[in-house]
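Blackboard transcription, Thursday session:
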Amino acid sequence: MTEITTTRLGAPAPVEQAGLSPVVPSTGQQVPVPAGAVRLEDGFWFERQRLNTDTLLDHCDTWIDRMGWYDTFRVAAGEEPHKPLQGKLFTDADVYKLLEAFAWELAQRPDPDREARFAELARLVAAAQGDDGYLNTYFGPKGEETRYTNLAHGHELYCAGHLFQAAVARLRSGKEDDLTRAALRLADRICEDFGVGGREGSDGHPEVEMGLMELYRATGRVRYLEQARRFIDQRGHRTFQHHPIGHEYYLDDMPVRDATVLRGHVVRAMYLTAGAVDVAVETGDDQLLGALATQWENTWARRTYLTGGMGSRHLGESFGRDFELPPDRAYTETCGAVGSVMAAWRLLLATGEAQYADAIERLLYNMIATSPNAEGDRFFYVNPLLQREPGIATEPGEAPFRKDTLRANWFWVSCCPTNVVRTLASLTGYFATVSDGSLTVQQYFDGTIDTRLEDGRPVALRVRTEYPWQGRVEVTVASSPGRFRLRLRVPSWAGAATVTVGGVTTPVQGPYAELERVWSDGDVVVLDLPMPAVVLQPDARIDALRDTVAVQRGPLVYCAESVVEAADAVDLDRFRLDVAGDLEVREAAGPSDVRATVRATGVIAPAEPDGAWPYRPVTAAASSPADEKVAIDLIPYYAWSNRGPSTMRVWIPSASAER
Amino acid sequence: MTEITTTRLGAPAPVEQAGLSPVVPSTGQQVPVPAGAVRLEDGFWFERQRLNTDTLLDHCDTWIDRMGWYDTFRVAAGEEPHKPLQGKLFTDADVYKLLEAFAWELAQRPDPDREARFAELARLVAAAQGDDGYLNTYFGPKGEETRYTNLAHGHELYCAGHLFQAAVARLRSGKEDDLTRAALRLADRICEDFGVGGREGSDGHPEVEMGLMELYRATGRVRYLEQARRFIDQRGHRTFQHHPIGHEYYLDDMPVRDATVLRGHVVRAMYLTAGAVDVAVETGDDQLLGALATQWENTWARRTYLTGGMGSRHLGESFGRDFELPPDRAYTETCGAVGSVMAAWRLLLATGEAQYADAIERLLYNMIATSPNAEGDRFFYVNPLLQREPGIATEPGEAPFRKDTLRANWFWVSCCPTNVVRTLASLTGYFATVSDGSLTVQQYFDGTIDTRLEDGRPVALRVRTEYPWQGRVEVTVASSPGRFRLRLRVPSWAGAATVTVGGVTTPVQGPYAELERVWSDGDVVVLDLPMPAVVLQPDARIDALRDTVAVQRGPLVYCAESVVEAADAVDLDRFRLDVAGDLEVREAAGPSDVRATVRATGVIAPAEPDGAWPYRPVTAAASSPADEKVAIDLIPYYAWSNRGPSTMRVWIPSASAER
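(Written on the board underneath:)
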């Protein structure tokens, strides 16, 4: 193990200067613009963040209460008698994720009632803490099991990590309170128990690493960094108990730095990656950082769905092998996407490479946005790309045990809703970065950026766009610091992007339009991203998608949804998309939360015989009768399953192979 | 609930007349020819049954001992102190399945050493039984848990059912011993505990129903029939605890008679079906029998792989939805195939329909034969139809926890090996039937049938064939009872079958060649089943197989296997089979246990770019450079994974769609 030298430890930013960011590395290619410096004023993410503020946060609070997950704290605090738990043993984490969301929310959109609610819950959490700093309502002196007796499956340190992230949100809001004090006491307890000379081992579910790292960054206490590095280093030696998918389930099959691709449980893999990037960055461990970047790249190229979702197997909620990407049994858990955003963001900050911002865009529009329904009272957990039969509906008020339902109010294991709300509450923290005299707009939105360059000079932009419906982005320099480099990301899906400044239009080379000059207030830059609907084909190695195509427009993946009760319902089992046909973008059509559909044409294939053995000798293709041309309107994937029972396909069989 | 009337109860055959058959219904369209009346003399099944006799049975005995699964009986009997169990809580069932296999084996191929081993184990089982007849080494007074406290997952009654089947094998061998007495005492205990006025509920894993039914048939004790019917009727009311795939996991989502297709855990579904057919037949419940036949037919048409295997999902070891049949993640557990043979055989006896014999043939050649390796020391548990990367190998002496490995010596959960050996030991009991003046050869083999027609007249046939390598079957009437109808099944894969008697060749209409006449000793019938290699295409609704083809010859499904270290290894990811090309049957080529390979031709597709986002805009098909023609030798699926690390495809992408 490399000794951490103090010179490499960097200097964590003091609380008052770190800004309201979930991740504040001490070094890296890019520095995050704080969430609070980016303000949404209209459009896609504005609407979703408003839904979060107005509805989703309270929905989660209500459901956590209803499930009795606050009660476990009251029991541990001695304020209530024991009650049977509704849900799994790691429900503390959902309380902490909601508190984290509240913290980001309160820092940006203060609300006295919510502040009071936060204080009440923070008090409760602190009351449940043991005298020695230990805190978990399931384990420990007041819980059902003895602490540290089930590290593989107990999620004990995992819960702690979520508390640390909530505390960081609070510290970066300039607060010290019951929650931050409880978090620091618990962090110290863990460092005592698992530090040098203490216990070996780590948690079956990574998370504590990333929590400790950010707590280190927020407080400067080096022991948290040392403990996080210790957890990372101890992983990968097959010490956890056997699992039906093997040790890779826990990412315990090999040391983090030896792996070349992500595997096992997707959320575990992504949380571990995020924490390991943090350790690599803060300890200057370029070998580790390089290994993590390679793992990400291989995973993105071979084990990722078009939506950015990951996880091909329901068993173990896990990655499959390379190119094993079944659309129907895609697990693609929402939490995996949240974890992927967290990992990609850290890699973007560390490397400055646009591929990570591209990944974040894909994940936000096609996974995060897909989870909540338009009303804000239901969430997807599992996100298939093919629904051959109408999916499993849940009753209002039902928290299903199974996760492969359509959107539900809540789940028996409900990690996803609280993960979505904390992501939406801190969303603007992922939109822009600064570096060395430059300001980069990494994600597009309608609103403002009001921040400082790395050298401290203030700068403000106004961004106007109808993204993701239109590819035109107008950036006005609202307050110029003089000379700086304005960088606008050109997503990888965009073809011939152009940028216009002062009436001069130039094609953009590379993944960023880079414009360095002495800017004046009022200067306007227009980035034009052509946004045709495009037919995509899968890599030939993806067996499950052979001879199908998908449609993407801008950052949005589209799908064919056939609503059972609709008058124009098409049998998607028989629809074959004409790849050579025109795709017509139709604005302001479709469901209410969709501003553009794509009309595609195709044919209906002959029906197969029912009730027969489904494997038959190949026959010469029957000269098909003049196929009836059929048009269908594709909708963005995020908007599916909002109109009643339906079937759905992202990947649509192509007509060409039928002939 | 319909009252069982004694007139419908039929008259179970007395022990001495029932014959050595696993299933002896009192009524039905066909009556089984006992296993002992069919003798194998050469060929495919002769070799496998000899492997069973010489190697597999002792292999299982050794491994059960090694895993400590006999020790649990010694502990329960008070003969040894408690030891930690290696394996799951239902290992009693493996002991019983091996004893069942021993019983069938001893009745046909007596062996004093094996008889002594059987007696020793039977004594041990009886010694573990409680004074009140209760018997389970995990539950009960001497076990770890209280009896009947975990019916959903405890497999308590499931283990009992396996004991009953073992006892039936013994009773039908004309023996009464420690095992049969223990079984009857336990059956009585269960009837007391779960009979009218007793406990409600049944076992999460069906099996006891079929065990009780055959014990009823073997003893005439009506209470066993009544109890089995009670278990069947009580199922389907969502009384078991929640499961990640829902109540269908246990087949507890709806009453057996209301379902239209099988679902949930495949082995549970098939065992339940088998037991329910038994109940339907013995109680004259035609509505139930009809429902079960419909369930089978829909399952066969929509939820079955080309190999006859079932189970599309690893999670819950379960069926998928209709047409969800991924080849790579096919679970297709060997035990599911054993259960399917048991269910199909009962439906064949009840209905006389050839489709069930077809199914049994498919399952025997492509699933049962696939499980053990040629050396007889390893077994497949999970049977995928696509191995994109070389599979997971296990060390000699390793009993893996995971089930998705290549063949292993044993498994931590090792239901499959003992299921295979009991099937092979009783195999000839599934080959022929009699009915109303007819004798039907349901499966082909090289050997003799020496039995009685339903009216008691003795009849003997000699069957000569090189099936499954050649489609010629020569049947000689060795001992004729005079007039009877000789029926020879024409498998559904056979095209223009002909039958030749006395120099006259006639085409066969329908699924059986039916030849009624006064037969003389020495009369010869030749059935000719044309056996070309045939290219098959999947139903268009099977998304996972789009634009692929498979090759079958006779009853054998073939596959492309690319052995990594072979000089002629082909990249199966890139091979495209030319559907219009000739298939050349090459005899006596390939692995040692294979007598015919099939040479197919195709091309190698261009390589895809590595490391790139795997979804790209559709481009006009590049005019491919003159593709190199490639020939590959397909081998029978059962023989794969015997030559070192390899990739494998049953379904091969077709070349046509690439152009």
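Lecturer's comment: Chain A touches chain B through 67 residues (CB under 8 Å).
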